[in-house]
Specification:
This protein has about 425 residues and is α+β, with helices and mostly antiparallel strands. The chain has two domains: about 1-75; about 80-415, Jelly Rolls, CATH 2.60.120.620. The chain is about 40% helix and about 10% strand. It contains eleven helices and eleven strands. It has helices spanning about 1-35, 40-75, 80-100, 110-120, 140-150, 170-180, 195-210, 250, 385-395, 400-405, 415; strands spanning about 155, 215, 220-225, 260-265, 280, 300-305, 310, 320, 330, 340, 350-360. Bound molecules: 2-oxoglutaric acid. The site of 2-oxoglutaric acid (AKG) has 11 residues, from strand 4, strand 10 and strand 11. 2-oxoglutaric acid binds near residues 240, 246 and 265.
């Protein structure tokens, strides 16, 4: 039996490798044909439409297959849990597209007072916001950050005086804890002005490092861990513990290795070996760093052929833990292998952190059903409803992290349903 499982697994792997090769070849043909007729816009538009037609067809088939698989799974789990899941997911989806209008009439989450009271008045919603304030990174520091990034694929910057930009990290951390106590996932910290003031400061770090104007992807999220004793399930907002890449090589770099985007991770409590810090694999230890056509590129860690083994496809000996005091900006290339560790029972304060992706403004960004990428000035104009959309979109974007370990914990968001 064991040998059959192994053969099946190897065949599957070969299948993936073949499929990637075929897709790359197809992509190359399409792009070359477009290049050949680029002085004829009508022809170019025709070829692009043809190509998109194929991609849509494929996406439809894959969504259909995923839906079938989900329905099959649903039949095998308790219908009770299945129904609850659908109710929450349906509500989240409608908030992503319609904002606070999707909440029942009179829902407290549609009011500023509710959110400000939850933050004990320490954070605000709807105050005046200022996009003009800039963080000025001295040239020598910029060069040192660029050198760190170029060498290892990641950087650490701990020189930002957050208080000077009106960002009280302690108040943010306390509010994330209050959100947790009230049943809200940590991504709802983006309901508050101060989380957006923090994001705007990051523009001043990312732009000089990438040497280009950048925009914020709508995939921002937040983490609020609990000690393993308090909660050992994968509820929303817990660490992403499997080694992974945020994007593949070509989504995150030009062909010559110049980065198109930067993933940013910022702890608002100290992040320690005890309470859950980040781990990275410096690119020198990652043989698949650039190999986005290969089977393992987006699978640096997967379950092995039996339930007790894990298959790792990077030099794990070179992995590095990055403990970081509150307010340290960690950044990495989108294709760098990384993960976040859980909070150990010995830790007194579980780690809380925020995560963002900034992408060069001349590069195509991700498209979502809800809010799209933002310029710095646009983050000053987000109202309560749009912030709700972003927080719910974040849950939907990352839900695979929560479904894969035992289940998507609907009980983590009762306030939305109340
Ligand atoms: O905070 C964590 O546990 C993981 C963060 C992460 O993997 C990410 O932001 O991409």
């Amino acid at each position: 039996m064991k040998i059959f499982t192994k053969i099946k697994y190897q065949l599957k792997r070969e299948g993936w490798a073949k499929q990637n090769m075929i897709r790359d070849r197809e992509e190359r043909w399409a792009l070359e044909s477009i290049l050949e007729c680029c002085d004829d816009p009508i022809k170019v538009a025709g070829l692009v439409r043809l190509r998109l037609g194929h991609l849509d067809r494929r996406a439809k088939r894959e969504t259909g297959e995923a839906k079938h698989a989900q329905e099959d799974r649903k039949d095998t789990v308790s219908t009770n849990k299945g129904e609850q899941f659908t109710e929450v997911e349906t509500l989240l989806r409608s908030i992503v597209t319609d904002g606070s209008e999707a909440l029942r009439a009179g829902h407290p989450a549609a009011t500023v007072d509710y959110w400000e009271a939850l933050a004990a008045g320490r954070l605000h919603l709807g105050g005046s916001q200022d996009a003009s304030q800039e963080v000025a990174i001295p040239q020598s520091e910029r060069e040192s950050l660029q050198a760190q990034l170029g060498q290892g694929g990641y950087l650490q910057c701990s020189t930002i005086a957050w208080g000077a930009y009106g960002v009280d990290l302690e108040a943010i951390a306390a509010t994330m804890e209050a959100l947790k106590q009230a049943g809200w996932p940590p991504g709802f910290i983006f309901m508050y002005d101060e989380a957006w003031a923090l994001a705007r400061v990051l523009w001043g770090v990312v732009q000089p490092v990438l040497g280009h104007e950048v925009e914020l992807e709508p995939s921002l999220t937040a983490f609020q861990l609990s000690t393993s004793q308090e909660n050992d399930t994968k509820t929303i907002g817990k660490n992403f513990g499997w080694p992974h890449r945020d994007y593949n090589f070509s989504e995150s770099n030009y062909a010559d290795g110049t980065p198109k985007c930067l993933s940013i991770w910022l702890p608002v409590t100290d992040a320690t070996l005890d309470n859950g810090c980040m781990y990275v694999v410096p690119k020198e230890f990652d043989p698949e760093y650039e190999l986005d056509g290969s089977y393992g590129h987006m699978r640096p860690a997967i379950e092995g052929s039996d339930s007790l083994s894990t298959e790792l496809r990077f030099g794990f000996q070179g992995s590095r833990a990055l403990p970081a005091p509150a307010g340290t900006v960690l950044a990495w290339h989108g294709n760098l292998v990384h993960w976040g560790s859980p909070c150990h029972c010995t830790a007194s304060t579980p780690r809380a952190s925020l995560a963002f992706t900034f992408r060069r403004s001349d590069v195509e960004s991700m498209h979502t059903k809800g809010p799209q990428k933002m310029k710095k000035s646009e983050t000053c104009e987000l109202n309560l409803s749009q912030r709700l959309q972003l927080a719910c979109q974040s849950i939907m974007l990352y839900k695979s992290w929560y479904t894969s370990q035992p289940s998507f914990d609907v009980d983590a968001i009762p306030p939305l349903l109340a």
